[in-house]
Write a structure and sequence with these properties.
The chain is of the alpha+beta class and 391 residues long. Helix content is 65%, strand content 11%.
Length: 391
């Protein structure tokens, strides 16, 4: 059976292997900074465990101070890793209290009250674990399985550290001269081993989750404009049945080939980005924007009356026509043509809506561009809007 010292060294070895695994993952995905930070935090805890073991063999004040500082620093770095993953700034708020706690721990340990130093360190670690749990729950974007895992992991560790501190307080062990030795410390060692392993598995799972999410975003997003792409349109609305309160509008930038030929492709890209910004600014509840490819865009409007839909189109066309792109040949203004199709009680499919809107779009271009045309599904004809989009 392993003695306490052997168990500590086994814990340190396990943590070192886990830290090395996380570092290897980070080397293959440098953008995942939180994985590197987590590896650093676990490595600090490994050094703490070794220092804790050595302090039990040769208790010197400086070693006690270093051991407790490493314990607090390790969990603070883990908090920083959590903040990086969640893109929160809570670690900046926690930095000053943690630093104050370390100073206080160092002072009381140097004064010979290493037992009190352990109590303060355990209490600080408990607070950090609670903050980590609260950060995940406050994020509000993770399913309950992840939240349950984080709560169980951080909660178990927090309880074990709280018990360690409580035993020292109840026994009045303010000055030890060695490492604490009681049932709570034994329990804490076992919990830390289990939690450290679970922490590594959770970090790897969160890394895979983020990677999958980023790949999904890249697959469904147009890199130039940031709008959803045609693949996203098919994924989200391939099975949609478009009723009478839903409209699909297709936009085509007028004379865009000439824009590229005369002003250059960089200017053309800027025009596309400007139009995407205009469309995005007009997005609201029930309005979704897509770039289909080239200079073609689509907007789906749900729960809108025809007058409201036409108003949105006129506003988009007018705002885009007022945009000025500065080029080496002088200011550049562009306009857009629109074809819009409304669903019907027969619940039209996406392909039917796209076909009708596309036909209406080309009718708008044939009519002189810079205008909207509504597809008339009853007789196959098109209705021209009376006014140009941008005067």
């Amino acid at each position: 059976m392993l003695d306490f010292g052997s168990l500590l060294l086994a814990t340190a070895l396990s943590g070192a292997c886990l830290s090395g695994t996380l570092l290897a993952i980070w080397l293959t995905a440098r953008q995942a900074r939180f994985v590197f930070t987590m590896a650093a935090g676990i490595l600090l805890l490994v050094v703490h465990v070794i220092g804790f073991w050595q302090y039990g063999r040769n208790a010197s004040p400086w070693l006690g101070q270093l051991t407790l500082t490493l314990l607090v620093a390790g969990f603070f770095v883990i908090l920083c890793s959590t903040a990086q993953y969640l893109d929160k700034g809570w670690h900046r708020i926690a930095a000053a209290p943690v630093l104050a706690a370390v100073v206080l721990i160092t002072a009381v340990t140097a004064s010979g009250y290493d037992g009190l130093g352990f109590v303060l360190a355990y209490s600080t670690v408990t607070a950090l674990l609670i903050v980590i749990t609260v950060m995940f729950w406050a994020a509000g974007e993770y399913d309950r399985r992840i939240l349950a895992a984080v709560t169980l992991l951080a909660g178990s560790a927090a309880v074990s550290f709280t018990l360690c501190a409580l035993v020292l307080v109840l026994d009045g062990q303010w000055s030890l001269g060695t490492v604490p030795k009681n049932w709570a410390e034994d329990l804490n060692t076992a919990v830390v081993v289990a939690c450290m392993t679970a922490l590594g598995a959770l970090t790897i799972s969160l890394h895979h989750l983020r990677t999958q999410r980023e790949l999904t975003v890249q697959t469904l997003t147009d890199p130039l404009t940031g709008l959803l792409n045609r693949r996203a349109l098919t994924m989200f609305h391939g099975d949609t049945r478009f009723g009478s309160t839903t409209a699909l509008a297709m936009f085509d930038l007028d004379h865009f080939k000439r824009t590229n030929d005369v002003f250059g492709h960089a200017a053309g890209d800027t025009v596309l980005q400007r139009f995407a910004d205009v469309v995005r600014n007009h997005a609201q509840d029930g309005v979704e924007c897509f770039r289909l490819g080239g200079e073609e865009f689509a907007v789906i409007m749900s729960g809108v009356a025809p007058d409201e839909a036409h108003g949105i189109l006129r506003s988009i066309g007018g705002s885009f026509g007022a945009e000025i792109v500065v080029t080496r040949l002088g200011p550049l203004r562009s306009t857009v043509s629109v074809g819009i199709c409304f669903g019907d009680d027969g619940a039209m499919t996406l392909d039917e809506m796209l076909t009708a809107a596309d036909a209406a779009l080309y009718a708008a271009k044939r009519a002189g561009r810079n205008r909207a045309v509504t597809a008339d599904m009853t007789g196959g004809a098109t209705t021209y809007e009376p006014a140009r989009l941008f005067a």
